[in-house]
Write a structure and sequence with these properties.
Two copies of one chain form a homodimer. By secondary structure, chain A is mainly α. In chain A, 70% of the residues lie in helices and 7% in strands. Chain A contains seven helices and three strands, in the order ααβααββααα. Chain A has helices spanning 3-20, 25-35, 43-50, 54-66, 89-116, 124-152, 157-166; strands spanning 41-42, 70-74, 81-85. The first copy, chain A, has a three-stranded antiparallel sheet. In chain A, a hairpin with a 6-residue loop joins strand 2 (70-74) and strand 3 (81-85). The longest helix of chain A has 29 residues, at 124-152. The radius of gyration of chain A is 21 Å and the shape is elongated. Chain A starts with a helix and ends with a helix. At the A-B interface, helix 1, helix 5, helix 6 and helix 7 of A face helix 1, helix 5, helix 6 and helix 7 of B. The first copy, chain A, binds a DNA duplex through residues 24-26, 43, 52-56, 58-59, 62, 79-81. Chains A, B: Keywords: DNA-binding, Transcription, Transcription regulation. Chains A, B: This is HTH-type transcriptional regulator. Chains A, B: Pfam families: MarR_2 (PF12802). Chains A, B: Belongs to the GbsR family.
Chain lengths: 167, 167
DNA sequence: ATAAACTTTCAGTAATTACTGAAAGTTTAA
DNA sequence: TTAAACTTTCAGTAATTACTGAAAGTTTAT
């Protein structure tokens, strides 16, 4: 496997992984491309390398910037904007954890709290609904607290913690 | 919020969460319905409650059974098959972790290992590709090892571990 | 103020993914 | 072995999601 093959394989694998997570392919591929590029890339560069349209590139770059894992960079004396990804894997993990907590876990926790707080009329089905949603609420809350821990710690906390768990 | 509203809210929230994770809506909703049902439900029951077709119900129940979080149950003297979900939240988490590791993390680790193992020709771009895919490989491996820990421990390991992390 | 160089937006369209329902398949009881 | 009761499969279709490209918008240099 030469450089070109390896790079393409990485980009396409990252792209499919994204799909599996509800992140669209283009967004994941742009991230992969920037992740392994030693130099900042322009929109043209990205469009050409991934064979996608200007609009698509623009929209997905914005999303990556919203996630806080890609940044604009301007080269002195050039009008064009260049893009770079966050290169530190720890920081990447922190940002992804933070976004997923905000977008996915927090809203579901809110619903679980509301549902598990309905009045208990003593019927079997009501008791079951309360019991089961309460159990999920506890699990999701713990997961969310853990994610927030990660987000608010120094950047090598993850590795240290994982190591603790593994041993 | 009465019982019916609460149940519907839970089912629809769980459905959207599924979508966000690349699990289809029907699959997540069937799981939610079984999760809060004190009694096993037949295919008819599920079809009627969620207003979905027989084919859809059948295919998604099979997937839930593949994931190991829903089981068939037969009532003595009845031809019809009934379905129940795993009710223990810990066991649910273990099964989900196990499946996600197998389907999502393991394949990506394999690619990252292959890509990060290409020959280093000393060029800047090759060095960057190796360095960055290696960093992701390490992160993904650690995450996967942690998930496997979870899967292979006694069922309340998660809670105990989360508690340790939180304090 | 003008225009060149660039980016963003968004209506229309393409691609993907999920769902339906009827036919085929399977199991069980008699 | 037959047929009733039930489940699965899958081709066709519907719904959703992603992408394109041109027009509108923005920024910068002169």
């Amino acid at each position: 496997m030469n450089y070109k093959e390896a790079k393409e394989k990485f980009i396409s694998t990252w792209g499919s992984l994204g799909t599996l997570w509800g992140i669209n392919k283009a967004m994941a591929q742009i991230h992969a491309l920037l992740w392994v590029s030693p130099e900042p890339l322009s929109m043209e560069d990205i469009m050409e390398e991934l064979q996608i349209s200007r609009g698509n590139t623009s929209m997905n770059l914005r999303q990556l910037m919203d996630w806080g894992i890609v940044f604009k960079e301007s080269k002195p004396g050039e009008r064009k904007e260049y893009f770079v990804s966050e290169k530190d894997v720890q920081e990447l993990a922190r940002q992804v954890a933070k976004e997923r907590s905000r977008r996915e876990i927090k809203p579901v926790i809110k619903t679980l709290r509301e549902v598990s707080a309905i009045e208990n009329d003593g019927s079997k089905k009501t008791k079951e609904l309360i019991k089961q949603t309460k159990a999920l609420y506890d699990l999701a809350s713990n997961a969310d607290i853990m994610m927030n821990k990660i987000v608010n710690q120094e950047s090598n906390w993850i590795t240290k913690t994982l190591m603790k768990l593994i041993n």
